[in-house]
Amino acid sequence: MSERADALGRLRIRPYDPRRAADRAAVLDICLKTGDAGADATGTYADPRELTERYAAPYLDLEPGLAFVAEGPEGGDVVGYVLGAADTRDFAARFAARESSLSRAARAEHAAGMLLPEIAAFPAHLHVDLLPAAQGRGGGRMLVETLLDALRAAGVPGVHLSVDPRNTGALAFYPRLGFAEPRPTVFTRALSTTAHPTDPAA
Question: Which residues span the domain enclosing 154?
Fold first, then answer.
């Protein structure tokens, strides 16, 4: 299922559309506005691409089919997104080779950081972000579940992610969605089941 909506129609989840310049602009903007452990990172970077070229733009370019956005009713503004990579090892190699504003060395360093031990059993990974005004409506849960459905359909056995230890909201959020924490700030979830834990407050 590639689209979802909350019971009150306040949020709709749909696939990212590479043809819509506004979609890309919104994802990059949200990445920046949530890039400091969930808080606004505007002003933290002299060049915002130091953040967006690590955590947003490459996913839109390299894995657009695993990008989904949350928008308000009737085609409202994009207020959140989830981005994923089905095969982290492959994605890391493509990330390092992709030309961007980051130096070759910076790309290689970031790519190496993706190669967590968890990718052996949980090869996919994800990033999800919602603007503060859109939180508390179930959008985070809907975004993650939409991506998990897409990964299951692709036959991916599991997904992992890492969380900034300062982001206490995220640390509490993922266990409510059925993710385990095999080591501090790293979360995993097997995708062999179709059960969907719910968390209306996400």
Answer: 4-190
Q: What is the CATH number of the domain that holds 119?
A: 3.40.630.30
pLDDT in tens, 58-77: 999 999 999 999 998 766 89
Q: Is residue 197 part of a domain?
A: no
State pTM to two decimals: 0.90
Chain-centroid distance of CA 50 in Å reads 17
Rounded to 5 degrees, φ, ψ at 63 are -135, 55
Domain count, the chain: 1
pLDDT reported for residue 8: 55
> Do 160 and 142 contact (CB within 8 A), yes or no?
no
SS3 letters for the chain? CCCEECCCCCCEEEECCCCCHHHHHHHHHHHHHCCECCECCCCCCCCCHHHHHHHCHHHHHHCHHHEEEEECCCCCCEEEEEEEECCHHHHHHHHHHCCCCCCHHHHHHHHHHCCCHHHHCCCEEEEEEECHHHCCCCHHHHHHHHHHHHHHHCCCCEEEEECCCCCHHHHHHHHHCCCEEEECCEEEEECCCCCCCCCCCC
